[in-house]
Fold Cyn operon transcriptional activator.
Amino acid sequence: MSYNIQKSDKKCLLMNWDDTRFFLALARSGTLRKAAMELHVDQATVGRRIQALEESINSKLFIRTPKHFSLSTLGEELLPNAIDIENAIHAINRKVSKGDDSLSGNVSIATTDTMAEAFVIPALKVLRTQHPDITIKLLTAVDIEDISYRSADMAIRGARPEEETLVIKRLATIEMGLYAAQEYVDRKGIPVQDSQLEGHDLLMFPRDLVPRHWDSFCGEKINNPNVVLQSNSQMLIRSAARNGLGIGLLSSFIAEKDPELIRILPGNKDWIDIWLVLHPDLKNQQK
């Protein structure tokens, strides 16, 4: 039996796990400072380890500028191989931890700031009361990192991932609606139904994150919308709406409890499925 090993694969074979984690940290962060913070070492150590790694394979993995490190062509070729090594190490650690029947240890959860405030934090209060030996690492972002490629154990998110190896379960379907401050309504008035929200200021997620909202904003067809603020955080959009900057699309379970917001066009609703995403190695693990 013969194997066709590519040049990048041969070089990756020279990288041990310690090399790999330094390489990945710098590739993901782009700076020595951020990589050092992630690895809990100093910047000089990161610089020395990367230099030694490049010397060992006699090739440059990064293109250096005064403020940023970007991957070289070889670095880009090696990145998927390095991620494979990382996945294998995490899988081993997860499988070894299955032997522990106690509910203890650290659980890493990736979610959005809104989900964290409304659902995750209250649930963690109950969990910690029942199982005080469990600790939590809570990561918040709209573009949640794929848990099959990173160290998060689970994710709670508003978009169903396409990765077939993950364990995916729909948790709930939540209602979203249009909200604004009374100050804004006094100044701009209530929008007319089916008017494309013409003449109104809108607070929206960036088009690349939620493109469908730029065609239909909570049931209102829009053309050349007057978007005065874009943010990848619903919490910041809510804050902008409360301050009278415009009309925002917000989760009703949060906005309805806010005395500074009023519902705009209450018959218009947008529905979002919330998904629990679990790494397959943890499906049958008690922790």
User: Anything to note?
Assistant: Residues 103 and 206 are 40 Å apart (CA to CA). The two ends are 42 Å apart (CA to CA). The first helix runs from residue 7 to 13. The chain is about 35% helix and 25% strand.
